[in-house]
Amino acid sequence: MRRLAGTPFELVFTKTAAKEFDRLAIRDAVAMRTALELLARTGDGDIKVLEGAPDIFRLRVRQTRAEFTVVHRARSLTVIRVFYRQEGYKTKGRSRR
């Protein structure tokens, strides 16, 4: 991923991600929001490109995860999914491990 340097990025949540975010425990929501704002402002964070999806990234904060996309020209970081680690990495009822 290109570094998110320069002008801060706008942080946007999809409707689904906003609902998922609201379901987090308060402590986890505060930590995730702080990490997302830091990422949008400075580009710093525990991020990784998702396998098989080169335009989707994952931010890890404690036991929570956020998946997001970045549009450099628009300076936007769109959160598409927020979840707890233990419930998030499943596809069609099976664990991806």
Q: Gist?
A:
By secondary structure, the protein is an alpha+beta fold. It is built from three helices and seven strands.
Describe the structure.
β6 and β7 (94-95) form a beta hairpin. The protein has a single domain (10-85), classed as RelE-like (YaeB-like fold, 2-Layer Sandwich), CATH 3.30.2310. The chain has a five-stranded mixed β-sheet with strand order 1-5-4-3-2. A two-stranded antiparallel ribbon has the order 6-7. The chain contains three helices and seven strands; from the N terminus they run βααββββαββ. The chain is globular and about 30 Å long. It has 97 residues and is an alpha+beta fold. Residues 92-97 have low confidence and may be disordered.
Structural class by helix and strand composition: alpha+beta
Specify Rg, calculated over alpha carbons: 13 Å
Domains (count): 1
Helix share bin: 25-40%
Question: Mind telling me the CATH class?
Answer: Alpha Beta
Strand arrangement within the widest β-sheet reads 1-5-4-3-2
CATH topology: YaeB-like fold
Number of helices: 3
> What is the distance, rounded to the nearest whole angstrom, between the alpha carbons of the first and last residues?
24 Å
Question: What attributes does this structure have?
Answer:
97 residues, alpha+beta, YaeB-like fold, five-stranded mixed sheet, 30% helix
Outline the secondary-structure elements.
Elements: E1 10-13, H1 15-22, H2 26-42, E2 47-50, E3 53-61, E4 64-71, E5 76-84, H3 85-88, E6 90-91, E7 94-95
